[in-house]
Amino acid sequence: MSEAPAHLRRPAAFLLYLGRRRLALFLSVFALVIGAALCAVAVQYGMKLLVDAMAGGPKIVAGAETALALFIGLIVVENALWRLAGWLGCRAVVATGVDIRLELFRHLTGHPMRYFSNQFSGALGHRVTATAGAVGALIGTFIWNIIPPCTDFLGALVIFTTVDWRMAGVLCLFVALVAGGLVWLGARGRPLHQRYAEQANLVSGELVDVVANIWAVKAFSARAREQARLKAKFGIEAAAQRRSWMYLEKMRVLHDIALTAMAGSMLIWAVHLWMEGRISPGDVVVVSALTFRILHGSRDLALALIGTTQHLNQIAEALRVIGRPHEVTDRARARSLVPLGGAVEFDRVSFAYPGGRRVFHDFSLRIPAGQHVGIVGPSGAGKSTLVGLVQRLHDVAGGAIRIDHQPITEVTQDSLRAAIAVVPQEITLFNRSVIENIRYGRPEADDSEVYAAARGAYCDDFIRALPAGYATMVGERGVKLSGGQRQRLGIARAILKDAPIIILDEATSALDTESEREIQHALEELIRGRTVLAIAHRLSTLVLFDRILVVMDGKVVEDGAPAELRRRGGIFDQLWRMQAEGLSMDEAVERAMEEAAVARRGAVGNGRPRGALR
C-alpha cells in the first residue's frame, strides 16, 4: 500500500496545494481586498481632516476642500477595488471548486472495489460536493471576513498612534486577548463540529441508500418503517448540530460582551482627552469611527474564525475517508501493456484479503493465448478472486501474474484493463442514453460500429422499439430496462471494446432460455480468437469451451476439456449430472462432496485405494 499524496493528508496541506494551482489569481484578490480595506481606514482619517478643517471656521476653505476631495476620492477608489476583488474572487472560488471535485474524484476512483463495498456511495458523493462547498466558503470567509478586519486593525493602530500611542497599545493588547480566547474556545469546540460533520455525511448516505432501494421499500411495505428509522438517524444528526451551533452562540455572546466593553472604554477615553484639550474633535471622530469599525469587523472576524473551524473539520473528515492511501498503485516507471494475444499466467501466486482467510497459496496456472477456459466451483472457492487478480483489482502477496509474459505490476492499470473486456453478472449502466452506454466500451467508436455491436449482442431490435431508440435514457443503474436487456447491453459493450481477453462472470444469468440461446451465439462470435475466462454456474454454457477448471478452496481440483472431464467420472461429471436434476451449483457441490466421502469410505472397506471417486 502506498502513502496518500501529501496534499490529501491534512486540510492545511490541501488548501496550500489548491492555492498554488491558482497562485497569481489569489494573490491578486488578496492585494485588491487589502487595498480596499486600507482605503476604508483612510476614509476615516479623511473624515478627521475634514472635521478639523471645519472646526477651524469657514475661513479655512482650502483645507476643507482638500479634505473633502480626499474623502470622496478614497470612497470611489475603495468601491472600485471591492468590485474588482469581487469579480476576481468569483473566478477564483468557482475554478477552485472544479479543481477540488476533480482531484477528489481522481483519488476516489483509484480505491479498490472493496473500499466502495464498505462505504455509502451517496455519502462519498456528498463528501466530494460538500468539500468543494466547504473550501469555497473558507476562501470566501478568508477574503471577505478575515483579511478586511485584520487590515482595519493594523490601519487603526497606525492612526491611533498619531492620536495617542497609549490607545494603540491598549487596542493591540485587547484585540490579542480576544483573538487568543476565540482560538482557544474554537479548539475546544472542534470535537463537536467534527461529530456533526460525521453525522451529516452518514445521514446523507443512509438517505441515498433508501432512495436507491425504493423498490424493496415499496415491495415490503416498509415506508413507515424506513421513515421511523430515518427519523431516528435525523434526530442523532440534529442533536449533534444543536450542540455545535449552541457552542458557537456561547462564543458569540462572550465576544459581544468583550467588544462592547472595549468600544465604550475607548470612546470615553477619547472624549476625556478632548475635554483636556489634548486631542482635536477630528481625533475623537476618528477614534469613535474606527472603534466601532473594529467592533463590527471583529464580530465578523470571530464568526469567520468559528465558521473556519467548522469548514476545516468538514474538509478533514472528507480527507480522512477519501484521501486514504491506494492499495493498488502504478509503479513510478510503469509502461503500457503490449497485447500479444492474451496469454495469462499465474506463477506461484499467494493472496489473502486483509483480515480475511487466505484464498490462494502457491497457486500456478497457465492459459495460452486464445484458449477458452470455464471456471466452476462453489461460492467462496476463489473464482471471482481469480479473475479479479487478472484485472489487478488487488495486488498479490507473493508470486506474479503475467499477461503475454509481462508482469501486470510493471504495466499501468489502465493499459492492463484496456486489454480486458468484462461482462459481469450485474451489468452497470449509467443514467445516459443507450448508445452512450454501449459506446462506453470504446468511446471513439462511430455510430455504425455501435449498431453492429448491438446486432451482435441481439439487442438491436429491442433498442429500436424503445421510445427514443438508441437515444433512450436508461435511468439510474438502468432501471428502465429488464435484467435481460441490461445483460445484452453489457455484452454489446464488450463486443465493441474488441479486447484480446474476455472475462465472463455469469454473463447469461439474467436471461430466459430463448434469449440465452441467442446470446450464446453472440458470445461465440465475441470470444472467437480471444482468450476467455468464464465463471459459470450453468455448466451447459461451457460445453463448447476448450478447458474447464474446477476450483475448490483456492485450488484447481480438476482441469481438462469438458468431454474429458465427463469421461473421468470425477467432480465435474457429478456436478453435471446433478445440475441436470435441477440442483444449483452449491447444492450440486455439496451433494458431490457427500457422495465422494461415501465412495472413499466404501473404497476403504472394499480394499480399493483411498480417495478413489465413483
What are the main properties of this structure?
3 domains, single chain, Rossmann fold, 20 helices, 614 residues, 9% strand, alpha/beta, four-stranded antiparallel beta sheet, ABC transporter transmembrane region fold, elongated
3D architecture notes:
This protein is of the alpha/beta class. It has three domains: 6-322, ABC transporter type 1, transmembrane domain (ABC transporter transmembrane region fold), CATH 1.20.1560; 332-419 and 504-568, Rossmann fold (3-Layer(aba) Sandwich); 423-498, Rossmann fold. It has helices at residues 11-21, 23-55, 61-108, 113-117, 121-163, 165-188, 190-212, 214-219, 223-275, 281-322, 383-390, 413-418, 434-439, 447-456, 460-464, 483-497, 513-527, 562-568, 571-580, 585-605; strands spanning 344-352, 358-367, 372-376, 398-403, 406-407, 420-423, 501-505, 531-535, 547-552, 555-560. Strand 1 (344-352) and strand 2 form a beta hairpin. The longest helix has 53 residues, at 223-275.
